[in-house]
Amino acid sequence: MEIDSRGIVSLVATFLLSIALISDAYRPGDIVPMSKMGQYHSSRTSWHDMIGRQCPIFAVNREVLIPIAQPVGYTGADPYKISFQVGREKFLIPWLFVINRKSAEVPMIDVHLRFSGNDLLGVTAKVVDMPAHYVEVHPNIHKQFWDSKHWPKHVLVRYTWEERSEIDVTSGFFVLFGSGLMLSFILSIYVLQSSKDKIAKFVRETVAESNVPGGGVEKVE
Known about the structure:
5-stranded antiparallel beta sheet; 221 residues
């Protein structure tokens, strides 16, 4: 089966593209995309992308305020919950109760993000009581949160990052082994293609020489 140079180029391009996709990662300071969904009773919103100033920033601890619009049919008798998707990987944060959660304190969402190198590994979150010093710094949040007529309400979100070790011997071995195997296969095809013409020429010359008649050597009696 003949393999032309275009086939080799295609294989190399596919290999490089796969490496590029694998290495797609975050850089320190990048905005990590995030979306949210809310539910009250059986009424659930669709996923809405959050704006940049409300999202996590890769490897940067910070706090932001996110608005919560008044749910459809809200009466104040039942809890309102919210869920998030974080990153291009769409890590899911399960439902968090933020309004009417059976607490006299203003809620704060504590989001814990794990990363290694430039990769986001996972996300967890929980609702906690807003610490007293936060209430002092943001007094309007406390006042507006308990005002049944004030919407949207704002909830403080604290993003905390934890760096994990980048060393993963097993995964690194398999990546290197797979890359080496793929490169060896591509190089083998390239060598075979480049030497095909030389082999064919050699075979033709050998066959031609074997068909040349003997050169007039007299038999001596």
